[in-house]
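Bumping my old thread because nobody answered last time. Still need a sequence for this structure:
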């Protein structure tokens, strides 16, 4: 049996937006009335943990109410043909619910909480988090989210995955949020590369690059059809 080609996909807020989840990139620094600096930084957590938890409690409710869209399902179906690895900047679980099985969440997951002192102490959470709740090591539980001004611990793993790609896809991301945007610089030279977005982001990598200027739902469905017809 022929080994499947490795298809590495970097997804961003655009694919979640198609499921009704608000995106920060369209929010002018405000996210449903919240100032991001007041709810999504280490300083905000130290200053007002209750407000931070309120913000993420609402995000969690939104995610639990949302449903995967055709873009999510298109990527999941490609697992029949390729070894699909999804590197997502999104904190929701919509890729998982659509059936994708190999996902790296660069910025954490809204349905998980972790110890404030030990990033490795993680539990699932689907209900509201409340101030004063302590993890087993005695420190407060915090959302398992990478906040602004914090390092992105999974970026090294993501770089290694991108370096191993036989095909590379960017979908629903503006390529302006670093370090995730820098992953495109590690794509092996000469491999097929595809960008799917309503507004194609700038990239200096123009060789072997195909662009589908459309929303994630329609664009990823078209991409899946192209890949199946081209390689199978």
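Sorry it took so long. Here it is:
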């Amino acid at each position: 049996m022929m080994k499947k080609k490795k298809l590495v996909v970097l997804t961003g807020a655009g694919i979640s937006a198609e499921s009704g989840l608000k995106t920060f990139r369209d929010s002018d620094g405000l996210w449903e009335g919240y100032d991001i600096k007041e709810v999504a930084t280490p300083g905000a957590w130290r200053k007002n943990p209750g407000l931070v938890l309120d913000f993420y409690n609402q995000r969690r409710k939104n995610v639990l109410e949302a449903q995967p869209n055709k873009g999510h399902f298109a990527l999941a179906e490609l697992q029949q043909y390729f070894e699909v690895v999804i590197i997502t900047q999104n904190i929701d679980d919509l890729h998982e619910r659509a059936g994708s099985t190999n996902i790296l969440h660069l910025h954490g997951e809204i349905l998980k909480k972790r110890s404030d002192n030990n990033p490795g102490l993680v539990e699932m959470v689907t209900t509201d988090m409340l101030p004063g709740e302590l993890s087993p090591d005695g420190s407060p539980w915090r959302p398992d989210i990478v906040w602004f001004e914090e390092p992105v611990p999974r970026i090294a793993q993501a770089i290694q995955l991108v370096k191993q790609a036989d095909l590379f896809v960017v979908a629903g991301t503006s390529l302006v949020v670093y370090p995730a945007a820098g992953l495109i610089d590690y794509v092996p030279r000469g491999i097929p590369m595809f960008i799917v977005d309503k507004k194609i982001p700038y990239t200096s990598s123009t060789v072997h690059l195909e662009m589908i200027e459309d929303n994630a739902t329609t664009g990823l469905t078209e991409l899946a059809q192209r890949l199946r017809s081209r390689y199978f």
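The mean pLDDT is 91. Let me know if any region looks off to you.
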